[in-house]
Specification:
Blueprint: H1 3-10, H2 15-34, H3 46-59, H4 68-79
Helix pairs in contact: 1-2, 1-3, 1-4, 2-3, 2-4, 3-4
Length: 87
């Protein structure tokens, strides 16, 4: 899935499509935490990471052709870096 396709899901008027966006973002975030690519503070919600991702996609339309997973990991790593991360 491209970042453009994900953004379209996230911005859809249909709850079912928004749910796909939420689930995709949540799954990627959880995988990043397990793999120690992301370090999230206890109070960070999945709704917040989804909002951060949407804001980044909207602010960078020239990158929407890229794979959604790579784009989201890049933005989440920059917002929620781990001290030991080399990314």
């Amino acid at each position: 899935m491209t970042a453009r396709q994900l953004l379209n899901l996230c911005q859809s008027d249909k709850v079912s499509k928004q749910s796909i966006c939420y689930g995709y973002t949540m799954g990627l975030t959880e995988a990043g935490i397990v793999n120690e690519d992301l370090c999230m503070d206890i109070g960070i919600t999945h709704a917040r990471t989804m909002k951060e991702s949407i804001e980044h996609m909207k602010a960078n339309p020239d990158l929407l052709h890229e794979p959604a997973a790579l784009m989201l990991l890049d933005v989440l790593r920059s917002v929620h870096p781990c001290e030991h991360s080399e990314h």
